[in-house]
Amino acid sequence: MQVSLPALKAFESAARLGSFKAAAAELSISPTAVSHHINNLEQRLSISLFVRTARKVTLTEPGKELATAAGLGFQTIEKAIEKIAQKDQQINVATTSSFAALVLIPALQDFYTQYPQCKVNITSGESIEADHFTLPIRFGETGKQSGADIIKPEQFNLYCGPQTAAQFNHSEQITIYTTDWKNSRLPKVPLQAWIELNSLHNSNINVRYYDQELFGIQQALLENAYVFCSDTLIQGYIKAGVLSGLNTQPISSRLCYYIADKQRHLSRHNIMFVEWLERLLKQN
Q1: Contact 198, 190 (CB under 8 A)
Q2: Domain HTH lysR-type spans what residues (predicted)?
């Protein structure tokens, strides 16, 4: 048997509070509306739920039975809503391995300091399949993205350890690590354009490639070599004094970090995370 949910809620409130007037105040409706809901419910069930007198209303035995069941039912619903609301405080992020390892994870403590009620769950990989509730922070071609979705256009430059920087102009041959993307549809890193920009086309340069920027940065650190990479990923190492940029001109690229269809993903807590992330990237 189907009954009206507003009528059941009016009954539960009146039964719990022992008053149609008090129920009306709790539900922000008129006492007449409460009475109307309960009368309709009684007609639907073909039974009296209250004994009405001039001064008070009292539950009948069937009314007591229904009040117990209705109270438990609404408590269950309220607990479920609270649980769902708590889950909303978890922010799910899917991004590339390099961006997760070199940008997001090192900065998470700062986010938690500002938003201690939230929890961030990060999954990484080069192929991102994100649902409506997951923030997809992707790396792609600037010209193919909406301007509103882009969170950081990329520049590239050459980086190395502080001691290695002094040897740059005196080495007969230099080894540069850079990236040949696993995703062949991405624009290539602008190494050749950077070489031309800095008039290094006559230099003896040995280029070695990895399919992720993270690997090239790590290898350059191990070998005291040079890495040609994006300025976004290198900032943590620069702040730590482990790597530094050479006195060369950086070059803009056709690449960017973006959140695909960003507006669709801006739930209440995701907005806080995106605003924090955009502030973080502006500092870099």
Answers
A1: no
A2: 3-60
Domain housing 107: 90-283
CA gyration radius for the chain?
A: 31
Q: How far is CA 20 from the centre of its chain?
A: 46
pLDDT tens profile 185-232: 999 999 999 999 998 877 788 899 999 999 999 999 998 889 999 999
CB neighbours (10 Å) of residue 251? Answer: 20
What are the C-alpha distances in Å from 275 to residues 245, 249, 261?
A: 28, 30, 15
In this structure, the answer to whether residues 140 and 269 fall within a common structural domain is yes
Asked if residue 206 and residue 139 are part of one domain, the reply reads yes
Which position has the token pair 């961030």?
120
| Cα separation, 71 vs 13, whole angstroms | 9
- Written as six digits, the tokens of 216 are 């090239």
CATH number of the domain that 12 lies in? Answer: 1.10.10.10
pLDDT band at 61 (very low <50, low <70, confident <90, very high): very high
Together in a domain, 95 and 56: no
> Domain count of the chain?
2
Whether residue 30 contacts residue 24, with contact meaning beta carbons closer than 8 Å, is answered with: yes
End-of-domain residue from the set 71, 86, 101: 86
Q: How far apart are CA 279 and CA 257, in angstroms?
A: 14
Total Cβ atoms within 10 A of residue 231: 17
Give the residue among 142, 168, 144 at the shortest CA–CA distance from 153.
142
The neighbour count for residue 61, using CB atoms within 10 Å, is 10
Q: Which of 160, 127, 166, 145 is nearest to 237 (CA)?
A: 160
Whether the Cβ atoms of residue 108 and residue 120 lie closer than 8 Å to each other: yes
User: By three-state DSSP, how is residue 239 classified?
Assistant: helix
